[in-house]
Every structure is written in C-alpha cells, then in structure tokens.
C-alpha cells in the first residue's frame, strides 16, 4: 500500500503538458521521425548503389 500511496502522491506533483505543448512536442517527434526515415532511406539507397557498382 505504501507504494500505491507514493505513486498517487507523485502523480499529483507531476506537471502535465497543456494542449499547445503537446502539439509542439508531437510535431517535433513526427518531424524528426520523418527526417530520419528519409535519411536512412537515402543512405541505404547509396550503399546499395555503391555495392551494385562493385559487382
């Protein structure tokens, strides 16, 4: 029971993000994810191209 009381107390002390901050953080995560997808796709394509030239 001490653990549950501690969790409840900690949840009351947490500062939850408002809607604007949540949208900002979500768009940052989505934007960075798209960037890294494009980056790694480009790197994969270049590596495949170079390996194809070696054959």
In terms of topology, how is this protein built?
Elements: H1 2-13, H2 19-54
Describe this entry's structure for a reader.
This protein has 55 residues and is mainly alpha-helical. It has one domain (2-54). Helix content is 87%, strand content 0%. It has 2 helices and no strands. It has helices spanning 2-13, 19-54. The longest helix has 36 residues, at 19-54. The chain is elongated. It starts with a helix and ends with a helix. The relative contact order is 0.06. The mean pLDDT is 95. Belongs to the SecE/SEC61-gamma family. Essential subunit of the Sec protein translocation channel SecYEG. Clamps together the 2 halves of SecY. May contact the channel plug during translocation. Keywords: Cell membrane, Membrane, Protein transport, Translocation, Transmembrane, Transmembrane helix, Transport. It is found in: Cell membrane; Membrane. This is Protein translocase subunit SecE.
Salient structural properties:
55 residues, mainly alpha, 0% strand, elongated
* Tally of individual domains: 1
User: Structural class of the secondary structure composition?
Assistant: mainly alpha
The major sheet is characterized as: none
Radius of gyration equals 22 Å
Number of DSSP helical runs: 2
* Amino-to-carboxy terminus distance: 66 Å
In quaternary terms, these chains amount to: single chain
Keywords: Cell membrane, Membrane, Protein transport, Translocation, Transmembrane, Transmembrane helix, Transport
Membrane topology: Single-pass membrane protein
InterPro entries: SecE_bac (IPR005807), SecE_sf (IPR038379), Translocase_SecE/Sec61-g (IPR001901)
Function: Essential subunit of the Sec protein translocation channel SecYEG. Clamps together the 2 halves of SecY. May contact the channel plug during translocation.
């Amino acid at each position: 029971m001490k653990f549950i009381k501690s969790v409840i107390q900690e949840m009351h002390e947490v500062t939850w993000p408002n809607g604007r901050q949540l949208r900002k953080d979500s768009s940052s995560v989505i934007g960075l994810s798209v960037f890294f997808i494009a980056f790694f796709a480009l790197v994969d394509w270049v590596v495949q191209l170079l390996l194809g030239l070696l054959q």
